[in-house]
Amino acid sequence: MCRWAAWLGKPLFISEILSAPAHSLIHQSREASKCKTSINADGFGVAWYDHCAEPGLYRDVYPAWSDQNLRSIARQVRSKLFLAHVRASTGTATSRNNCHPFVQGRWSFMHNGQVGGFEAFRRHAEQLISDDMYQFRYGATDSEVLFLLACGLGLDHNPKAAMGQAVSLLEQMSRAYGAEVQMRCTAAFSDGEVLYAVRYASDALAPSLFYQWSEAWQGWSVVSEPFETVSGAWNEVPKGSFCRFEGRECTITPFVPALSNAAELRKSA
């Protein structure tokens, strides 16, 4: 399982979350406390928004703790919205194209979890990606398939419904191929203005997800595990939830992919 952190608010140096705290994301890459793998050394990535609509992106295959370029960039780049991720592979190769976040147009996406039995139906899952999105299929991960499916299903217009349909399609495919656990997922994604997050699993073991508003920093931290208490308490996102962060507002609603997908199918029938 991976670790990740996202920020939305007043421009903040990426290092304030990535490397400065006692339990920073880089520290979590060596000593995570809320996942079954404490070491997350199969690559890293950062996507950030500044003056352009499309995010900047830096990814590599090294452990995050060993890359001095990452630390240097994080100390110099200040951003109103960024996504940072350290990877623990669930089976696919360690390559730059398999490192999160993934980017398509103005959207960025990162994921912690897995689609059960993905390698058994990978080819069939990829065939679900729309033609205009398949050109952005660079890697081999289930996470990238989930992202590109959602993009093709209307992420621009209805992020919750699009992600719900994408999760549902892969969950149903996993079940059809006999996987014991079909879906475990926490994800964060953004169009550069609004930050979204999801916590969901087909069993009782949804990966962890927390959020916090900081008055000192004037913004939202959304993380797979807390890095420290900046101001106020960390709030755990309930299982089966969809989160929307914009300005000072946080909205959390139920996330039930099967029902979301069924509703959309009825609309198109």
Annotation keywords:
seven-stranded antiparallel β-sheet; six-stranded antiparallel β-sheet; alpha+beta; EgtC-like; Glutamine Phosphoribosylpyrophosphate, subunit 1, domain 1; glutamine amidotransferase; transferase activity; Gamma-glu_amide_hydrolase; 269 residues; single chain; transferase
Strand segment count: 13
Shape: globular
Strand order of the largest sheet: 3-2-4-1-10-9-11
* Multimeric organization: single chain
- Domain tally: 1
Second rung of CATH, namely the architecture: 4-Layer Sandwich
**Class by alpha and beta content:** alpha+beta
What is the alpha-carbon Rg in Å? 17 Å
Biggest sheet statistics: 7 strands, antiparallel
Q: Outline the low-pLDDT stretches.
A: 259-269
- Secondary-structure element pattern, one letter each: EHHEEHEEEHHHHEEEEEEEH
What is the C-level CATH assignment? Alpha Beta
Intertermini distance:
38 Å
Keywords: Glutamine amidotransferase, Transferase
Domain Glutamine amidotransferase type-2: 2-269
InterPro entries: EgtC-like, Gamma-glu_amide_hydrolase, GATase_2_dom, Ntn_hydrolases_N
Organism: Sulfitobacter guttiformis
